[in-house]
# Entry
Amino acid sequence: MFEAKEVKNKIHWDLESLVVGAPLTQSFSYGEWQEKNGDEVFRIRVDFSGKPVLFCQFIKYKLPFGKYIWYAPYGPVIVKNQNGLNDFFSEICQKILDEKGGVFLRIDATPFDKANSFFPPNLAQPLPKLKFMSPIQPRFEWTLNVEKNSKELLAKMHEKTRYSIKLAEKKGVEIIIEDENFMKYFDVFYSLMVLTASRNHFSLHSKKYYENIFEYITVNKGGYLVLAKHQEDFLAAHLIVVFGNTAYYLFGGTSDEKKNLCGPYMAHWAGILRAKKDEMKFYNFGGIEEAKEKDGSWQGITTFKKKFGGETIRHAELLDMIKSKFWYKAIAWAKRFR
# Structure
């Protein structure tokens, strides 16, 4: 009674209407961004008695030594869990590896039902647990319910955040929201991204990667760019993408100048207000670091995001189906050495 179909047309990927809170990374648009950047995308929809019960978008990622993997970022997404679905999906995963190759296939399911620690809890039992390696999405995200009025939202914030927003307003920080021609401010956005990456010691995608996303959103809509500016200086630029009932803060950069004017605080507040205007339910700040993670590199940005109020989204454990144990171990050692 289960039937698996490869989906190539957006019409048959009605994920947004079927699953409240479905992740952006499993949207058809997200897959198209990856395709524009040269990555192969493979989408599977599982039907039960003619109705969709599971969606999973896999992206092919390159590894060292000319190898590659198939990764489902925050996928699969379950519309309705049926008896036997976990076994059927495992067979699909094995078939993808057999027919399309790859060192391993990684699933990264997200708990949509807060009553369950992982959603669905039994889906990935046949698969061996994660041992190593990126690419992965953040294990924790920070999200804010924006259905309350602006006064209530401000009241729930940390007092320093409220003060910073008011200070930015008082000092004349201007907000620009662009939702038509994203490329108009691309150079500003990218220069702030480069500054931020250098300051915080993280890597960026290629410039073309961001250009492709800006061009896509300009044509297909579904987002807005928030810029905080003082006189002639741009202080912050935030790219917000809308999917389902959520406005996602996808990428952003900040200036080293005029930090005392609190431009990033004002930019996020403007993004939140726009999300409210668009009748979104959530404003997703993106990845954070929880105490159990030992790295510590995200603690500053985590503290900043949490002071706006909100709650943590905890994602399920990563699970790998391994095709080549030799290359799985070899690439793991290579990445550790690097």
About this structure: The radius of gyration is 21 Å. The longest helix spans residues 85-100.
